[in-house]
Design a protein that fits this description.
Strand content: 15-25%
Keywords: Cytoplasm, Metal-binding, Receptor, Repeat, Zinc, Zinc-finger
Subcellular location: Cytoplasm
Radius of gyration: 58 Å
Low-confidence stretches: 1-5, 11-16
Protein name: TNF receptor-associated factor 4 isoform X2
Main location: cytoplasm
InterPro entries: MATH/TRAF_dom, TNF_rcpt-assoc_TRAF_met, TRAF-like, TRAF1-6_MATH_dom, Znf_RING/FYVE/PHD, Znf_TRAF
Number of helices: 12
Length: about 425
């Protein structure tokens, strides 16, 4: 405080400030705040009382009584002595050993009595001093080697692996005299080696009911060769019947029940040349039906013409074939029929050639057909001339398309 006053007096002389009769007393009587007012101290009084105040101010730093060398504000001294002083005396909460503050910091993280989580992440908390023993004997995540395949697994999955391990020994399910067999080899053992396994005869599918040990199978085959041959013949006959039934089913699936036939005729040039060299050559279409239970029809074509159209036109006809449901249909057949020969290619815009007719009920061609129909059918001998056929794009890629359509409005059904 004296030095502070001396500094003030010296400055006053330097600047020729002449204090009053007792400047020291005036200065010491001036009003000041505590030097720790920014830390929250609210003391304010004469300067002469500041030193006494600092001796008790809770914000003023003082020497740690444990002589750790730290200067600590009085307000924080209690916490310092209890928690941070390096010279304090305290006990480890786990092993209860007493240490200085610095010693406790060194001891922390090494105490053998502190419970910590297993490093292998098994989820258990173990005393640090017992961690090595836990990891080697108790930890469910420790690695263990399978005794059969020599692979490593965590302890909690090893049992599941052993139940599936391909090298684990197992007993033959037929209880044969062979010792334990590796699980992976069991199937081959049963298939090729096991003498106790009952094996079915190789002619089982043919009907042989023999089933017995492997060593009796060869004797059975030799003694029953004739019987097996008979079984195979019978099996072949049954399979032949099944094949015919399947062919019939497939054939039915391919039948046209729409009442419209789109007949694609390929290799037109070759067929036309053959028709010109052979009189009366007729092409017939696949049969089609007016409906699922309707009339059965078939189209035919003479490429080089027939009757009045011979050598100059293509002739087309329709004939009624004997169908499965003729007894339930109305006769004579009276649906209108339209033949259309299509032009091919969108650029022509010419459409095609079409001819239609409605059957006359007196025509013989449309009466109920006999089981062996021999009539030509009804149609157009001069359907399209050869000249027109080649002038317009009816033929493309040596193929023509003829549509035969039954008018649905004329269908007579039961």
């Amino acid at each position: 405080m004296n030095s502070f006053f001396s500094l003030i007096t010296k400055n006053c002389r330097k600047f020729k400030i002449y204090p009053g009769p007792d400047p020291k007393q005036a200065i010491m009587g001036s009003l000041v705040f505590c030097i720790h007012h920014k830390q929250g101290c609210t003391w304010s009084d004469e300067l002469r009382k500041l030193k006494a105040h600092l001796n008790v101010c809770k914000h003023d730093a003082t020497q740690c009584p444990n002589k750790c060398g730290a200067q600590i504000p009085r307000i924080m001294m209690t916490d310092h002595l209890q928690y941070t002083c390096t010279m304090r005396r305290t006990k480890c909460e786990f092993c209860q050993s007493e240490f200085s503050g610095a010693g406790l910091e060194e001891h922390a993280g090494t105490c053998g009595q502190e419970p910590i989580y297993c490093e292998a992440k098994c989820g258990q908390r173990v005393l640090r001093g017992r961690m090595t023993l836990h990891k080697s004997k108790d930890c469910t995540k420790r690695l263990r080697r399978c005794l059969h395949c020599n692979r490593e697994f965590s302890a909690d999955t090893l049992a599941l692996h052993v139940n599936q391990c391909p090298r684990a020994p197992t007993v033959c399910p037929q209880r044969c005299d062979v010792g334990p067999i590796a699980r992976a080899d069991l199937e081959a053992h049963l298939r090729d080696e096991c003498k106790a396994l009952a094996i079915a005869c190789s002619f089982k599918e043919a009907g042989c009911r023999f089933k017995g040990p492997r060593h009796l199978l060869e004797a059975h085959l030799e003694a029953n060769a004739a019987a097996h041959l008979s079984l195979m013949v019978a099996l072949s006959a049954r399979q032949g019947q099944q094949i015919q039934m399947l062919k019939s089913a497939v054939s039915k699936l391919s039948i046209n029940f729409t009442g419209t036939l789109l007949w694609k005729i390929t290799d037109w040039s070759a067929k036309m040349a053959e028709a010109k060299g052979k009189d009366g050559l007729e092409l017939v279409s696949p049969p089609f039906y007016t409906s699922q239970y309707g009339y059965k029809l078939q189209a035919s074509m003479f490429l080089n013409g027939n009757g009045p159209g011979e050598n100059t036109h293509v002739s087309v006809y329709i004939k009624v074939l004997p169908g499965e449901y003729d007894a339930l249909l109305k006769w004579p057949f009276s649906h209108s029929i339209t033949f259309t020969l299509f032009e091919q290619g969108a650029q022509s815009g010419q459409g095609g050639v079409a001819e239609s007719f409605v059957p006359d009920p007196t025509w013989e061609n449309f009466q109920r057909p006999s089981n062996e129909p021999d009539q030509l059918g009804f149609g157009f001998p001069r359907f399209i001339s050869h000249d027109l056929l080649y002038k317009r794009p009816f033929i493309k890629d040596d193929t023509v398309f003829l549509r035969v359509k039954v008018d649905p409005s004329k269908i007579v059904a039961v």
